[in-house]
Amino acid sequence: MPKFFVSPDKVSEHTIKIDTDDVKHIKRVLRLDVGDEINVSDSVGTDYTAKISSIEEDCILCEILSSVKNNTEPNISVTLYQALPKASKMEFIIQKTTELGITRIVPCALSRCVVKLDGKDAVKKVERWQKIADEASKQSGRGIIPEIAPVMSFKDAVIDMQKSDLCFVPYENAEDTKLKSV
Fold first, then answer.
1. pLDDT range class, residue 117, cuts 50, 70, 90
2. 3-state class of 155 per DSSP?
3. CB 18 within 8 A of CB 4
4. Which tens digits make up the pLDDT trace of 4-63?
5. Which residues of 154-173 are buried (b: 16+ CB within 10 A; e: fewer)?
6. CA-CA distance, 9 to 67, in Å (whole number)?
């Protein structure tokens, strides 16, 4: 059964309103109709089985049949600070870490990165990466969609890391340091 994400404010006591790009996908690609059942997640960990009750031009209304807490989410929140790799490797990293259960991904523009993003390019890339995280969440049955943060400099990433309870920064030349000892 197809799965879709909505924001929590689109879920009421008995109905769900889908008014995202998924409307076109539901109508034209999947060709679902009134009475068909779908899975909908509220993006904060609750999954709903819903029946399509009406299809309009820009939204789909669904009747909630049942709800259940999504149990696929890990019990810890993990943020990945990722230097910008070449080509489409970032898309692959976002897809696979989303499938593994990451909560947030922060792209970092470091001094030795070949890829340079700024202004509109960075905003467009982040929007694309967010769509990739959305699709990977649907595919893997996640209860949330990981946040793709705006591209940060190294300095801003270090400041952002300080908000965490625990932070690991791997270093390729480290010797005799085991994760267990940390």
1. confident
2. helix
3. yes
4. 999 999 999 999 999 999 999 999 999 999 999 999 999 888 999 999 999 999 999 999
5. eeebeebeeeeeeeeeeeee
6. 16
